Amino acid sequence: MAGFVNIRRDVDDKFYRYRMPVLLTKIEGKGNGIKTVVPNMSDVARALSRPPTYPTKFFGSELGAQTTVDEKNDRYIVNGAHDATRLRELLDAFIDKFVLCGSCKNPETDLIITKNEMIVRDCKACGERTSVDMRHRLSTYILKNPPKKKGKKNKGGHAEAPSPSSEVNGVAASGENGDAEAEAGSEDEMMKRIKSEASELKAESQLADEGWSADTSPEAVKARIGAVAAGMGNLALTGGGEDESDEDADSPYTQLGNWVVDNSGASAVDVFKKVQELGIEKKHKAVRVLVQTLFTGEIIAEIPTYIAIFQKMVTSEKHQKSLLGGIERLAGLDHPELIASIPKILMEFYQADVLEEEVVLSWGTHVSKKFVDKETSKKVRKASEPFLKWLAEAEDDEEDAE
């Protein structure tokens, strides 16, 4: 039987109110199919008042490993062999980032998503509301899979976990999501977040290597405009169900492409404002135009600066296919030197939860002339094989686990 430890393991007080089961692990399989099962993940998550999928996905993100979640059979798996000590350390990190109050460090919190898509920890002990790190990959997962409201049941038919205070003291925790929505700001708040994240990431990239910055000399800009103009003329070939009126020289997509090129180096928030101004923030074709015009031959260094835009705009399989189409055009036509970097490009978008493995695997096995000629399409997919192989092996491991 597993014992119990303080939720804050740095607290030695044996009378500490907030406790959780010791995280257990079990190694299964061998070779490429080896995996680590956490048999008591549900019990640990219940003590933290968080869905068990959150710490599981956190482990996968921190370890760079695929995860398998089977709520019906209560199985939570991280691919690879990971010892219990390492996972307990990562659990401590999860608790610090997504459970403990940022003010009083009390675990008696609920996660709330505001209207402007910020995640805050609502503390029942001190009343403070503190935000989590929105740049962490788990934050994106939480936005797409928000915590259930109190009293509702999860997919497995079990009621959601009570807060740590109610588990220890027997008193039901209060606090509804309604207050958070009252605090929700306007779209400008979301813009401020994008701008803040993008500026920080951009600054880090520039400090790491000055050579990564895009060439904005008049000659380079002129050459880029010429390349994009040639590509924009072919947008009509990739309408994908859009109105014919969207495909002429005055279409919002052409306007967006020209604006991005004319304003080379524009911030993420300015680009998104332009997309909104044109009323195409929900259109999949806008995603492709942004890929073709925002990025240059230094796309690997540029993605962090603009990734928040794609996390906001890519909301369906059709959007993902448009994104992949933009990558095909960018690497296959505008910057052939990027062909060898296709696996890295796909990995950047995949790790940011913009691309899903099912969509990428399907794309990789079907040569298409929708965005580029057949030969170029084959070349891009051939270059992506290392990434596709990695995804397929990870998927096979998950199927074996199920």
Automatic annotation (TrEMBL):
An MF annotation (GO) of this entry: translation initiation factor activity
Record field: compositional bias (Basic residues): 146-156
Region (Disordered): 138-190, 197-216
Composition-biased stretches (Acidic residues): 178-188
Residue span(s) of domain W2: 243-401
Keywords: GTP-binding, Initiation factor, Nucleotide-binding, Protein biosynthesis
GO biological process, alphabetically ordered: formation of cytoplasmic translation initiation complex
SMART domains in UniProt: eIF2B_5, eIF5C
InterPro entries: ARM-type_fold, IF2/IF5, Transl_init_fac_IF2/IF5_dom, Transl_init_fac_IF2/IF5_N, Transl_init_fac_IF2/IF5_Zn-bd, W2_domain
GO cellular component, one term: cytosol
Recorded family membership: Belongs to the eIF-2-beta/eIF-5 family.
Record protein name field: Eukaryotic translation initiation factor 5
Taxonomic source organism: Lactarius akahatsu
